[in-house]
Amino acid sequence: MGIQRFCLETTAVADVELRKLLRDPTELASRAVQPVLWLTVFGQVMERVSGIHSGPFSYLVFITPGILAQSVLFSAIFYGIAVIWERDLGVVHKQLVSPAYRSALVLGKALSAGFRGLVQAGVIYALGAIMHLPLRHDPLAVIAVICTVVLGSAVFSTFSLIIACIVKTRERFMGVGQVLTMPLFFASSAIYPLELMPSWLRAVAQVNPLTYLVDALRGLMLPGDVAFATWGADIGILALIFALLLVIAVRLYPGLVR
What predicted TM-score, i.e. pTM, was given to this entire model? Predict the structure, then answer.
């Protein structure tokens, strides 16, 4: 009964979050602009730079999974500001006095953030078709991409929730969020291979969760045989990071209202 109750509470929280998003889809529309600009402007310009070696793929194809990972990061990292709004409106107080599991409250929010990531994935695949990018479309790889995007969204949205629980104000959150997003993005393999980085930056990239998200998506989306062993290792690392962040978020979440 405990597991069933936990699953029902998690699903209920995720359903509420999705309903709020569907009633005001402007955020999804505005977020869709970002990957379009990165692929149509930045990607096509940088493809002409001969110093960036992207292996057997064109640079534009190489960065496509990285742009998807970046879109997931940027959509999820500011998720915590919505929780601060809910705190100010008294919604968080009502949730915390309910008999629901605290872990179900946090996990439900994390899963709902995955929907934003799936919208970004849809935009990337549609744009790839328009631009005739040779991405993989076989069902198994696409299903794996969906799972990876949901997990990546959950990781960064939970991280965002932890930040919200620590800073507790919208103004501080926006400042911290802006400081964190750019280093996370540029200290990853999203737009250039790890081999091009200086040694100190490569060391940072290897402990950056976004690097593992990019690596998993790149192995699934680019042409060729999918190395599911490598993908499984990346997913395993992301899952461990998510579990750690979930434990921290569950402990900090009640402190948001104090």
Answer: 0.90
pLDDT averaged per 10 residues in sequence order, the chain, 258 residues:
80 82 72 80 72 73 91 86 82 78 86 84 90 89 93 93 86 83 88 87 92 93 75 92 93 76
Query: Is residue 66 within 8 Å of residue 54, measured between CB atoms?
Result: no
Task: For helices 228-252 and 139-167, give the axis angle rounded to 10 degrees.
Answer: 20
Sorted by where each begins, the domain ranges of the chain are 2-257
CB atoms within 10 A of CB 125: 18
- Residue 142's CB is within 10 A of a number of other CB atoms, namely 16
Distance separating alpha carbons of residues 253 and 31, to the nearest angstrom: 27
C-alpha to C-alpha distance for 91 and 83, rounded to whole angstroms = 9
Under 8 Å between Cβ of 163 and 79:
no
On whether the CB atoms of residues 9 and 103 are closer than 8 A, the answer is: no
CB 112 within 8 A of CB 14: yes
Query: Rounded distance, CA 208 to CA 204, Å?
Result: 6
Structure tokens at 218: 């790149």
Instruction: Report the 10 Å Cβ neighbour count for 45.
Output: 10
